[in-house]
Design a protein that fits this description.
mainly alpha; 2 strands
């Protein structure tokens, strides 16, 4: 009788142990399947991201890496971004299906250049959308208004250091925006820019050694000479002796 009870007890323990082993095995298999699924999901997401980088969509160019200027920011905003987010820039980005544009709160010709033109110039150093577009397009459009020369010339002593900061920036796109802004300013203020050129040409001379910037910088120097006259040529040649005049 005791042997029978002992044998039954052993069988019961074996069944319990077997059930535990089955549950443990099932749990391990479930974890393994979950790990495999997560791995596949991760690989799929990684592959999709890699494919997007190799073959960008047309919309990626129109809508570059963007931040929400009115939402919570992970770190402190730049001076331009802070002003923009508080409504201190009287224009906003108007999204288009093909091309973006600026929507001004009032006609630009009715706006004071001080300090708006300087603020827009400071925004040229931004690297995030929409600040990059708003600053470069706002600067360009403001210089096109009637009476721009009379409004811009008095601001040159304060404007030149800001443009210089863009021209010495390590980011190539920031440099290009600064170079374009300099050419736009030259068209508007003409020879009035000559007294300030020496502060800007050193950075142009350094970038001129980079083959990819040789053509745009040469074009910019020609524009400066064209609108600055013989006075600008003297300054340019003093800083960049290899420059060849197009006018004289």
């Amino acid at each position: 009788m005791q042997k029978s009870e002992c044998h039954g007890s052993v069988q019961l323990r074996n069944r319990v142990t077997g059930n535990c082993d089955q549950r443990t095995s099932s749990s391990v298999q479930t974890k393994q399947r979950t790990t495999v699924q997560r791995s596949k999901s991760s690989l799929s997401a990684s592959s999709l991201e890699s494919a997007r980088k190799l073959h960008p969509r047309p919309s990626d160019k129109l809508n570059p890496k963007t931040i929400n200027p009115f939402g919570e920011q992970p770190r402190a905003l730049s001076a331009f971004a802070a002003i923009y987010s508080k409504g201190g820039i009287p224009c906003r980005l108007a999204h288009g299906s093909v091309k973006h544009r600026l929507q001004w709160e009032c006609p630009p010709e009715n706006l004071p250049f001080d300090p708006l033109l300087i603020t827009l110039a400071e925004g040229l150093r931004e690297t995030k959308h929409p600040y990059t577009f708003v600053s470069k397009e706002g600067f360009r459009e403001l210089l096109l208004v009637k009476g721009a020369p009379e409004k811009a010339v008095p601001l040159l002593p304060r404007l030149i250091p800001v443009l210089k900061a863009a021209l010495v920036h390590s980011d190539d796109e920031v440099f290009e925006r600064g170079l374009n802004a300099l050419m736009q300013l030259s068209v508007v203020v003409g020879p009035s820019l000559n007294d300030h050129l020496k502060h800007l040409l050193t950075s142009l001379s350094k970038r001129l050694m980079d083959k990819k910037f040789k053509e745009p910088i040469t074009s910019a120097l020609q524009k400066l000479e064209q609108h600055g006259g013989s006075g600008s040529l003297i300054v340019i040649k003093s800083k960049i002796p290899t420059y060849c005049s197009i006018c004289f």
